[in-house]
Amino acid sequence: MAAAWTPALPDGDAPIYERLVEALRADVASGALSAGTRLPPQRDLAHRLGLGLGTVTRAYVEAEKAGLVSAHVGRGSFVNAPGAIGAPRRREGPINLSQNVALNWPAARVIGETMQRLRRRPDLADHLDYSPAAGLERHRRAAAAWLARSAGFETADWTRLACCAGAQQGLALAFGAVARPGDAVLCEASTFNGIKALAAHAGYRLKGVAMDDEGLRPDALEAAVAATGARVVAVLPTLQNPTGRIMSLARREAIAAVARRLDLILIEDDIYGAYAPGAPPPLAMLAPERTFHVSGVSKTLAPGLRAGFVIAPSDAALERILETMRAIAFAPPGFGMLIAGQWIEDGTADTILAEIREETAARAALAKSILGSAIAGPAVPTAPHLWLPMSELEAERLAGRALRGGAEVTPPAAPIVEPGQVTGVRLALGAAADRTELEEGLRIVAAALADVDERARPVI
């Protein structure tokens, strides 16, 4: 039976259909409308509220888009459980353990309300204009505040921060400020595939540096500089991608000391810093005069929120970044940072991050329970990606068997810069729709791993 739901429309200047959706959202959140409740027919509700049928129909459509209700032809519209609002749907094809993306349902649950708040901001229309090349001051201040409280970058200076369209663009801007085609650039022996793609596109000669359990080795870095003449080093000190390793404070200080002695420029990718609360301070705090610090929110708030930041080590370096920005995009996009900045300022970002950390920890624990000692680490319980060390041949076999079984892992060759040094399989935990799907994928990997181990045994 349909509920005799007669909502009280909130006051405001928003269109009536939007206020009706907000009344529905509030009643679902408060429990006044429980999961599974059938909403009244649109014509009946329009009559009771004295509204046009088109207005109510529009509200029901928008409510379904927001995940508040599910509509069934011939049966009506039914209230979804609060926990299901914004929940991702399973995609067709293999279970995705290959893409390192943030869980998007915490952000999806609040994006509708956020858009309602944004439309009432007096500066909303300002975002239709070109922003300054570094971004709006309010956005830059918000970004610096976020780096300070989410990733321990307590001295982040907004005056040397430039906003950009995601951390990948931030890396491109930083490299473009200090390297030219043909230059040697150093990085970890296995690194983020985006750095490899950037080097290939820009014509840099990428050289991998040996690693240990803490990441980049200072002695190997010094030797690589002597061998290549490189002056630029890309490094991921926290939850290194793909291995998930974290540099200790002593190791970071040693890398900073080598950089000073050899006059190196460090490009620090700290996109996963927010997943490791309590990690040592970023390299940009230890060697601020020579470190470009790159981060963003796509890995911690929502993948489609293309809001990144790069902090330059000097005013001159910032100006080189802005010259590149003006050349390739004229100005950073304003609306991604508008949403991110709103969330940072009102505390929503902290809530989303806390939910993502909690769910990521549960997923990492699930992976550990299924794969056990095959996993190296993880360095922290909230690691969004896990590393299974093995030879290149074993990794390719595992990836192939897993894919045939219905689970896709990160291609083993994707992160490798120096073959034969750091090899294995990376498992990304965030793309699976839920833990049930993740568990299914992990068990496929476990079965594939057992088969690879069996094939590796010598037969006489």
UniProtKB/TrEMBL annotation:
Say yes or no: keyword Nucleus present. Answer: no
Q: Name one GO molecular function term.
A: transaminase activity
PROSITE patterns annotated for this entry?
A: HTH_GNTR (PS50949)
| Domain named HTH gntR-type: residues | 14-82
What CDD domains does the record point to? AAT_like (cd00609), WHTH_GntR (cd07377)
Q: Does the keyword Transcription regulation apply?
A: yes
Alphabetized InterPro entries for the sequence = Aminotransferase_I/II_large, HTH_trans_reg/aminotransferase, PyrdxlP-dep_Trfase, PyrdxlP-dep_Trfase_major, PyrdxlP-dep_Trfase_small, Tscrpt_reg_HTH_GntR, WH-like_DNA-bd_sf, WH_DNA-bd_sf
Name it.
PLP-dependent aminotransferase family protein
- Write one Pfam family the protein is assigned to: GntR
Question: Its domain of life?
Answer: Bacteria
Q: Which SUPFAM superfamilies match?
A: PLP-dependent transferases, Winged helix' DNA-binding domain
Tell me what organism the protein belongs to.
Caulobacter hibisci
The UniProt similarity line reads:
In the C-terminal section; belongs to the class-I pyridoxal-phosphate-dependent aminotransferase family.
The entry's keywords: Aminotransferase, DNA-binding, Pyridoxal phosphate, Transcription, Transcription regulation, Transferase
